[in-house]
Amino acid sequence: xxxxxYFPGCASESTAKSTTLANEFVFGALGIxxxxxxxxxxxxxxxxxxxxxxxxxxxxxxxxxxxxxxWPDLDIVTGCASCYARLKVTNHRVRTDKEARFIVEKxxxxxxxxxxxxxxxxxxxxxxxxxxxxxxxxxxxxKNLKVACYYGCLNVRPAELTGVxxxxxxxxxxxxxxxxxxxxxxxxxxxxxCGAAHxxxxxxxxxxxxxxxxxxxxxxxxxxxxxxCPMCQLNLEMRQSEYIRKREDKLRGKPSFPLFSMVLPPxxxxxxxxxxxxxxxxxxxxxxxxxxxxxxxxxxVGNVISKAFRDENESEVFI
Amino acid sequence: xxxxxxxxxLMEKADVRQYDCYQCGKCSGGCPMSDAMDFGPRGLMRCAxxxxxxxILNSDTIWLCTGCHACVERCPHDVNVPALIEEARYxxxxxxxxxxxxxxxxKTFVSSVRTFGRNHEMLLAxxxxxxxxxxxxxxxxxxxxxxxxxxNPLLKPIHGTxxxxxxxxxxxxxxx
Amino acid sequence: xxxxxxxxxxxxxxxxxxxxxLDVHKVVDASRALPGVAYAADYKYLCSEPGQQLILxxxxxxxxxxxxxxxxxxxxxxxxxxxxxxxxxxNEYLLEIANIREQASWVHTDFDKATEKAIDLxxxxxxxxxxxxxxxxxxxxxxxRALVIGGGIAGIQAALDIxxxxxxxxxxxxxxxxxGRMVMLDKTFPxxxxxxxxxxxxMVDVSAHPNITLMTSSEVExxxxxxxxxxxxxxxxxxxxxxxICTGCGLCEEKCPFKVESDFDRGLSKRPAIYKLFPQAxxxxxxxxKDACVKLKTGKCGVxxxxxxxxxxxxxxxxxxxxxxxxxxxxxxxxxxxxWQSMYNEYGAGRFEDVIDGLQFERLVNASGPTxxxxxxxxxxxxxxxxxxxxCVGSRDPKKGHAYCSRACCMYAAKHAHQxxxxxxxxxxxxxxxxxxxxxxxxEEFYDNTRKDGAVYVRGRxxxxxxxxxxxxxxxxxxxLGRQVRINADLVVLETAMEPAEGSADxxxxxxxxxxxxxxxxxxxxxxxxxxxQVGGVFLAGVCQGPKDIPDTxxxxxxxxxxxxxxxxxDEMETSPMIAAVAADKCSGCGACEPICPYTAxxxxxxxxxxxxxxxxxxxxxxNVNAGLCQGCGACTVACRTxxxxxxxxxxxxxxxxxxxxxx
Lengths: 319, 176, 664
What we know:
The complex is a heterotrimer of chains A (319), B (176) and C (664).
Chain A: E1 3-7, H1 17-30, E2 33-36, H2 47-51, H3 53-70, E3 76-78, H4 81-96, H5 98-108, E4 118-120, H6 121-125, H7 128-137, E5 146-150, H8 153-156, H9 159-162, H10 172-179, E6 183-184, H11 203-219, E7 224-227, H12 230-238, H13 240-252, H14 258-263, E8 274-276, H15 277-284, H16 289-292, H17 302-307, H18 312-318
Parallel strand pairs in A: 1-2, 1-3, 3-4, 5-6, 5-7, 7-8
Chain B: H1 3-14, H2 26-30, H3 40-49, H4 53-58, H5 61-64, H6 70-74, H7 81-94, H8 102-116, H9 121-131, H10 142-147, H11 161-175
Chain C: E1 7-12, H1 24-32, E2 37-43, H2 49-62, E3 66-71, H3 74-85, E4 95-99, H4 101-105, H5 111-130, E5 138-141, E6 145-149, H6 153-164, E7 168-172, E8 187-188, E9 193-194, H7 195-208, E10 212-215, E11 218-226, E12 229-236, H8 251-255, E13 259-261, E14 270-272, E15 274-275, E16 287-288, H9 294-298, H10 303-307, E17 320-326, E18 328-331, E19 335-337, E20 355-357, H11 358-365, E21 386-393, H12 409-423, E22 428-433, H13 443-453, E23 456-459, E24 464-468, E25 471-478, E26 483-489, E27 491-496, E28 498-500, H14 504-511, E29 538-540, H15 550-568, E30 572-575, E31 580-582, H16 593-596, E32 602-610, E33 617-625, H17 635-639, E34 645-647, H18 652-662
Parallel strand pairs in C: 1-2, 1-3, 3-4, 6-7, 6-18, 7-10, 18-29, 20-27, 21-22, 21-27, 22-23
Antiparallel strand pairs in C: 5-30, 8-9, 11-12, 12-17, 13-14, 15-16, 19-28, 24-25, 25-26, 31-34, 32-33
Helix pairs in contact in C: 1-5, 5-18, 6-7, 6-15, 11-12, 12-13
């Protein structure tokens, strides 16, 4: 059984509820043991390092050092792209920059050598063995389900940290999704930033980023968008009605009222469900909608998923 | 220190050489925030080339960067614009230059981490909306989140809260 | 008796190049005090006519026996001054150049220290020349036959020029027809004359010329020997068609049931397994592609044999090797377009059918191309309305491609835009550029007209190309506006960089020619010997030396031909006497020098000798240097354990004198 030290990230406790349940289901089914780093704290993404380089290094260093102390043989895994980036940067800086390591150890008050790797879910699921295990764990396959795999910028860039070969058209998630029978579409926004980092403080400027991603996924024929990060997930989903209303208003040539467009639900034909890759895997591995609490999604997913099963019986199991 | 020297120090810290850039615009062409920025990454490098530190520090470009690294990835000369932006932000903050409420968000964020050890998204968004006077932003989602228990109104701090607060304190002191 | 050491030292000002950065008079004074120096003087330009006269007069007046000239690099004017010495009674190898320009005045900013260094350099040169000995050039015979490697426009032009001067030429081309890249093009800038119309007559001239032996489907396999006396092995690949009988009727091509992607059409069409490269191919006879022919692979088919009225097909045909005696070689191996698919993931890495390269566009717009000259996009055959042209793909990009500028792209991009606007009424063209470079006769005017025709030039490098439904979106910055632009394109043309042709590195290695970091052949001097290489008798023509357009390529090919003609016009030539010399009495015959020599100039030979002590007649091995092959690199001299090999002009004693002088 493979084991990893697990950094859940703050979203796992709140908005990423269904994804967290799916993670537990999938890794349980695959026999991968995720050992939660005890009393982990927020990694500070993305505010801490904007305010101060040292705080930006110190916050992720605490759980990392904790893991190194307690589980010196385990790599660290996280399910959030922002956490992944901050943990990875800290790890990399401590390894390559003597001064940074000195400061981190000084501020932390204990040694930290960054001996182990920081990984994300895509990294650990794309191994040869893991892929076979996924295939073996599948109970049902999707049919006619076109998926747009959205990796997010921080899961693939910068290259020297992530080691992803093709950052413009990454493949790891597409390959995983294809195992379930879903058809990954060739689309243009796999690693384009969704602007999640600035959706609060520069909302007007960053809303179009997510809107463009949704638009491209739809134009390229996707039924759902798959994500590998709860931040991307929330951003693409929660504000979708706002984006779509705004666009509808624009097409009609009417002025857009933000409150109005937020509250009124958009045309359901215009929305596109957003699921995390682990949710998709969990469903294919037999998890039911209730178990995963799929109704917590802002954009309803039930219909699209039910339609996508090969035979009617399987869809009943799902509901 | 003259502005020119400060700029050069900034560039050195960021490990960016402004004259590596030949202004091809591939960065700004791919920058997802470019439409909203005053200069964009190429313009920022241009400011650095002509030695205009003031323009860099007062630009909204440095605050709108999402750090997605698409610019460096595609740059023919591997100019690390995000690294320069990070240094420029620190310098702007040292000088008290504010744009786009990002400091409101960032400070609220860090105090939340200081208090609870973790970050509670809705608390953060709520506090931010109050401080930044944007009461309705994203609030349409709150009923759904409450109903589905995506946010817990009872905030639970981690055990090592004081430890984290001290850590932040030490790190901030180190900067000074 | 040893030769007199009476040395004359002459210091050149080189205008202000030297005199501006160090104290010339101080160098003159210091020179006068050096042992052996009988006379020292300075002059503004020693290489000039009066400067040379000044030296000759001084030789006569002061009875000088050895000369030191402190000036620019010996690569610049050593030969000039040697020629000058032929007018005097001093042997031209009793001359030493102290390089006080490149090694002192140009590279140092401290006036006093530069002067000091110049004095050191002069002192070393004086010490060395004191030990120099008169050398005499040897004569070697010259085979009056040239080899041209590569049958593109460069090779064709060089071959025709040499042949017209009355010398035999062998033109070797690896494809089954000559013509190269130029015949793939549609029209040529800036005059827009049809590329095939101006190049095919030259191809026919080649095949009809009595002095030219054309070897297509052939590759140079081995080169040995030296200037005037090369021995070249050429492998003539099996064509499976007897070209002595074949009339090129084309029946076999029509009936061949197996089709593969056409390289000539850059994958935009299919051709049969037995094929001619293109309709006007020279020779106009088909060959069988052995990787595509089912008969050759499995033995089942044989349609061409059945159909051929003259029985030309021979499935048993085999490669043949031909050996040639050659006097001079022209390398004209050309280029290949960069494989952008593996460089630019942001442009789709080849996933989008309607993103094509410039050479593919040439085929699309060419009347003899797959669409008969109608611009149709590859994905669905529709006429595009909006075309985006992207320049500098693989060029000017040190991270993903090459640092160099490919020189021709600005112009052919303008030509492409012109052709699109001409052939697609109502069509729109956007050209994304970083800088526009049009330094050629009529080039700026051509660009200007294209702009006025309505081609929209956008200053910025395209950042990425992505699919949105059925359209391709080109995203970049209009850096003059400072705004991001997204253009929905029906067709995208990437103007890709030129790269050295496949296999050109092998050819250059075989010949012993140097390459630069990008793989382009290195000329002997970038300004003054642009078509020669460091290897005697090997010359460069066309793009193999660096990216260039057709006018420059043809000009360079003719220049190369002139060099070859100059060489072949002589019956014999002088070789540099500054080569390795073996002191037979010291040579132990160990053979350590033999594998070290990069020019295979050293062989061990049996020499009669007498046994020490007994005086009995014996034979022993002694290293022997072939004067024609030896380039004087000196590698053998350091490998020799007994110190038996010396480089004439750079004897160990001379070098040691120099070193000693430095510490005096």
